[in-house]
């Protein structure tokens, strides 16, 4: 090894010529992974450090549609130094002639327990919420202020209560802990809502009790105590250790996904690394021949160039790690200011080590085969311009290659935290590489055959282009692999994004209702139905009683011990019905009789029941408004949640919920031109009823999906940039072959124009082939995601597909023509004299 290191070090004195593409590909891939890891760690650190501020206290006890009872309040007072009560619900902010959905936060004197709200104008929160001249004050999100055309001092209504807008809420310290909201925020005092008609029995709201705890409190111990006493009554516990689990989970998953996209970029870069090593070794034929003539064995040659690869890989990894750490640090102020939750972006050693590890493994995997083939080089073949490196290396190298690949995939799966996605991505990358390799092989064989047919007679440029693609040492494989994989990722993103937007923009509105109306009091239902059913524009109305409950037990055992499913992770909508309804399809069991008054019975959603492993005869214990109701599953029914209509996982017989305070919900189907009149009449007549426009809700979801698609597209763009670097490397590596080809063509009488046309056609054909394969791979990936992940239909989107093919042609043209000048200027005599 010492002799090999000495030879490698002396040879590297000649500079890095031939390794620039190697370094660029490796550095770009490592930088992408390091940057994503640094950002993810920074966000997670910010959520951890600012947990109490995000949550609004050291801990929180949350209840659905009820306030804490005396025993629960007594427990909070016994463990906390301060307690703040917050009501959270949706309502309509009303002004004369207009209205808008808002997420209301009703607070007490203690809000916020931690952190600070930022107001414009900058006045204390207590002063902003105080009553003046009989009108309580209110804070409002600037978006909602603009939407309603309000100014500071103007009046608006929540329910039947008037409020005076005193300030814009520019920063809400605990906004990240409340999750996704359909409307902008309004903050008022809880006691100001006493006469609003919004917080009545059966209304849909949450109460959150934020607790300030003594220093050194054991949060885990308190969580265990609280859940043991109150979990069965519907209480949910959160504390500052994981103040925003939804955000943290989302950041972790999207970060893991982007790291996997970064690995795809490394795979693309690996193609360039392999091509660069092959090209470099081809350029070292005289050196290798001389060493072998002097007695050097194949093993020594392998170790010499392994040392060189290792040293240059270390340099490329260091450059990538430095870029991946430096860019997020420089952009930290901008990123931190733009995020709606705290982030502390700083150096993350683990993220950098992970990126470096991936880079090292990738470099070794993609250089092992070219390096191993040096053992098969024969000195006699090298002095006359041949490489002598064809054929597969010995078995130990192939075993090592498989072991390294398994290590890389296993490590990515372990670090990602989402093994299914990691294995799927690894399978997709390997499958794409295999498909692209087969496509390259097919293109080369087809080009070789077509070049010999009558179709190319009289077309020397086309025949030369096809012959060049089909030649034994053609760079078609490198070009199609590198460009095709990057374009495949981009094509998949484009297909998924278009299908999601199409489902939201075209499919959903044709099946979804115009409005969801909630908090309809029982004595208001008749008048409400009279208004909407007598409207000729309304095509359909559905109503149902609405309660919320938490599934605590399944067959007498704690539900979360039985199954980890979204149905048991929080509170769920529950209704009751005497008959199944006209559209209900019972898939198993029987629905109870209309006058049934026995023990509680449950009709459960069939698909969710199958996922949870439930069967007829199983019992569920559901906590509704603090009361446990145990019922038996007697039927399963089909529930379709995809059309944004009314759907309940659980339906009970009416006697099981007799006496429970509740409200009704309704869905109204109407064309867009009728929505304004319906909304105006309902909110004016019944101010407590909240109207949720499905189109506005869908727009909010579309914004979130757009942000995800943008992030993924940027990551795919990084993969594509790496692919373009590989193209440049392939073009540079093939420059000598193009010089030789140009010399032959000139000798046969070809002009520079014909030669240039041949080069351009060759690049365009390879780019088009890479683009077509990428579109096919992207289409398959898009279909798989939309069908199995999104549970939606898939339609092929041709516009982005044509753009991908055009992009592939353009990229290969630019890369190929950039290295066409020297071949065009080559003198045939000087070039051919040194060749066989």
TrEMBL record:
It is found in: Cell membrane. This is FtsX-like permease family protein. Residues 261-374, 717-823 form the ABC3 transporter permease C-terminal domain. Keywords: Cell membrane, Membrane, Transmembrane, Transmembrane helix. It is a multi-pass membrane protein. One of its GO terms (cellular component) is plasma membrane. Its main location: membrane. The keyword Protease does not apply. The chain crosses the membrane at residues 21-39, 257-277, 310-335, 355-374, 395-415, 421-443, 764-789, 801-821. The keyword Transmembrane applies. InterPro entries: ABC3_permease_C, Membrane_comp_ABC_pdt.
